[in-house]
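re: that chain from earlier
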Amino acid sequence: MASIGQWLRPALTVPKTSWSAGESNWKVSPKTFFVLMLGLWLFGTGEAFLVDAGIGQSPWTVLAYGLAKTFGLTIGETTFLTSVFVLLLWIPLKRRPGLGTVMNILVVALALEVMINILPSPTNFAAQLIEVLIGIAIVGIASGLYITCNVGPGPRDGLMTGLNARTGIRVGRVRLGIEVIVLTIGWALGGIVGIGTLLFAVLIGQAVAMSFGVVERLSPHTGHQD
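^ sequence. v structure.
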C-alpha cells in the first residue's frame, strides 16, 4: 500500500488520463467536459479563498481586484474582461483557442463571483493564513484536473506559450515577466499584495505538480501528453 508521501510525489510532466481529450480541442466526451467544468469551478473557488482571506491574492486576482476598485465593477466582471483582453492578445501571436480556453474565461469568473460571497472572511491572522493555504491547495487540485483535459490552455497560459514561441525567451522567464507586470499594475490600482501573494508564488508550482502526480497514479492510463 502506497504511503501518503508516495501518493503526493510530484509528477515531472502533464499526465495523460482517462478523461484527456484527443487531438481536437473542441470535440470532447461527457467525462472530459465534466472534469473540465469541475476543475475550472474549483480554480475559481481557490482564488475566492485567497480573496476572502484578505492577506494577499494571486497576481492576476490582484489585477482584477484593482480594476474592480478603479472602475466600480465586481471582481468576477473584471476577471472575465481581463481574460477576454488577454485572449485578444493571442491574435498577433497566432494562437488558437479551444473549448478549455472559452470555458476558462466563463467558469472561473463565475465561480470567483459566486464563491466570494459564500466563503468566510476571517479577521484572525491564523484563520486567514489557513484560508490562503486551502485556496492554494484547491487551485493546485483544480489545475491538475482541467489541464489534463487537454482541450486548450487558459488565456494566460496561451499568452505565455505564444510569447515563448515568438520571442524564444524561456517559458519561466516569460511567465515571471508577465506575473510581475500584472502584479505591479494591480497593486498600483489598489489590489491586495501581501503574504498570501508570496505564499501563492512559492507554493503553487509544487501544488500543481503534486496534483499531477496524484492524477497520474489514480488514472488507469499511463504515459504523458506530448
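The chain is about 70% helix and 0% strand.
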